Amino acid sequence: MSFNAESAMRVNPPAPAQSWKGFPKYNFVGGHNDSASIPAKELAVSVTSILNREGSDLATYGLQSGPQGYTPFREAIASMLNRRAGMREDANSILVTSGSLQALSLIFDLFLDPGDVVLLEKACYGGTLSRLRTRSVEYVGVELDQEGMRADSLDQAIRQVKAKGKRPKMIYTIPTVQNPTGRVMSEARRHQIIAVAKEHDLPIFEDDCYADLIFAGGRPPAIRALDDDGRVVYCGSFSKSIGPAIRVGFIAADWPILSRLLALKTDGGTGAIEQMALSEYLGEKFDAHVDSLNKTLKTKAEAMADAIDEHFGASAEFERPKSGIFLWLKLPDAVDTSRLYQVASSEGVAINPGADWSTEETYGKKRLRLCFANPSVENIRQGISKLADICHREFGIPHHSSNTQRQ
Ligand SMILES: Cc1ncc(COP(=O)(O)O)c(C=O)c1O
Questions:
Q1: Cα distance between residue 83 and residue 147, in whole Å
Q2: For a designed S-S bond to 221, which of 12, 86, 163, 313 qualifies (C-beta 3.0 to 4.6 A apart)?
Q3: Ligand 1, CB within 6 Å, residue ranges
């Protein structure tokens, strides 16, 4: 008789993951990046020179820098944040993490108990929503407009949570290139959100991993840059500006928070070679890389927006992306994007159904997220055409199949 592994596990173990079968042919999900833009040669030069110089430091956990991360890297992150996001960091206010997903987990573990309530944008990163659900933390969606999360709706939502006798515990926001709407919160709105947080004495968790990907013009200062009393805990990542497989992110916070997060980070440290490779790269080379990456992303964003116009016509409502790696699309009420997701997946087209990225079922049901950074322009054109055909077949929308529309 073979070992019954499941019965040896804890009560309610997670459902088993599927073994990986490769990427689908038309892959419009996941925060993948443009392959040709990865600065592999420059990173190789950086890592070789540091390993030649300091490679023997790999002998100790945390190198010669301690558990917060490689000191020259933290200094480089701090100066990048100060230069690009108007922040006032130094190496001591930075904790290097294994991707910003680890940052999310650490911050949620520090602040949230089961039953607590987090206020967040009503369209929100699926990875955040699932992390909150697994902690039995509730979330309440706040309205968004062109300037990002609405401060009046936030205030109202907090009051309603309190009126129900529940505990609002944190404001979580993706203010710069909001996932999935792509909105960039205005500077004025950032001040208003801080004012609401102060009024209710709540911390703000600013998740800023897309902030470098604004195609033209600069970014507004980080909310953390505008805060004056240490209530903003900030996380960033190199997944979107360099590549997700590198698995390096970071937290910026004042010491009363950072020191507790550090106590929770018991993984022996984030990979040192990645930190070393990035640390020499982060100055002017990084800025030039991001400028060039944004040009490529803009071309792909336009290709996807054009393909949607061509194949979905008036059935699709969306904003042409000015930043980021994804597009948030609304289809008519007759479409259920969770079903579209299932049928499209079985035919090699991967999409994110809106239900996974929303706090409200009816809002999410007719929406979907499409990522454009990794597929080629040709693949985007073909994949969107195929998606329109599938949607037409399943829901009669768009009203004509994309082949007919093209004639
Ligand atoms: C808003 C947001 N936060 C965090 C992450 C996690 O990214 P990573 O762990 O690769 O830094 C993502 C990934 O897509 C994201 O969209």
A1: 23
A2: 86
A3: 31, 99-101, 104, 125, 127, 174, 179, 207, 209, 237, 239, 244, 249
